[in-house]
Amino acid sequence: MEARGTAGPLAGDGGTASAPTPSDVDLLHAHVAGDRDAFAELFHRHRDRLWAVALRTLGDREEAADALQDALLSAHRAADRFRGDSAVTTWLHRIVVNACLDRIRRRQAHPTVPLPDGVRDAEGGTGAVEPAAPAPDHDTALVVRQALATLPAEQRAALVLVDVQGYPVAEVARILGVAEGTVKSRCARGRARLATVLGHLRPGPGTGSAPAGDPVRAGGNVPTVTRGNPEAPGGVRSGSGRSRRDTNQEDS
């Protein structure tokens, strides 16, 4: 009688069984358990999308890099408080957006004269390699970014996530920690303000027009980095990523 042995590799795989790719949740749990490399792998997996959100929200590369670093440090320290009520990416995005909004508020309270976008002081440069940036700006995209910078912080964050990055309203609501109706209201108010500033960018009759009421896309040439995550995560609850705003307060 043939002896019954342990299951071996499946036929046709060359005798090599590849390890499954760990999920985001697996990596986060491994980090909490003491794996020194798990959080770095999680960050590198999502760095481009997080960087794009930070850059487009703040409009300044140095500020965006600092905000992203602050956010990742917060996420690193608060990983044990992640309860799995949402996708890890939603949790990370929320922490990044909050870090950006904090910087916007501090900048408004203590205004300075920033260097042009992408320019760093020769002695103050970090020399670190930045995450992959969105596609190079065109003149029109620069105008749109400057117009976005004039919006209130909450409206800007909502428009960047919905109109520029292409995230669904439901996911943006989870990222920002507000109701879907609040996201729609912020986007509508922001678009109305941008329509006044960017009206001259709308194409004329017969040249092909952007979707009605969408001055961000009408501005054109604003490249998107992602169309969003395929998951449909639930609400985000994180100590470091907790919303710092009254979710029922409308923008002025």
TrEMBL record:
Residues 1-22, 200-252 are annotated as: Disordered. Residues 243-252 have a biased composition (Basic and acidic residues). SUPFAM superfamilies: Sigma2 domain of RNA polymerase sigma factors, Sigma3 and sigma4 domains of RNA polymerase sigma factors. Residues 42-108 form the RNA polymerase sigma-70 region domain. It comes from the Bacteria. InterPro entries: RNA_pol_sigma-70-like, RNA_pol_sigma-70_dom, RNA_pol_sigma70_r2, RNA_pol_sigma70_r4_t2, RNA_pol_sigma_r2, RNA_pol_sigma_r3/r4-like, WH-like_DNA-bd_sf. Residues 144-194 form the RNA polymerase sigma factor 70 region 4 type domain. Keywords: DNA-binding, Sigma factor, Transcription, Transcription regulation. NCBIfam families: PRK09643.1, sigma70-ECF. Belongs to the sigma-70 factor family. ECF subfamily. This is RNA polymerase sigma factor SigM.
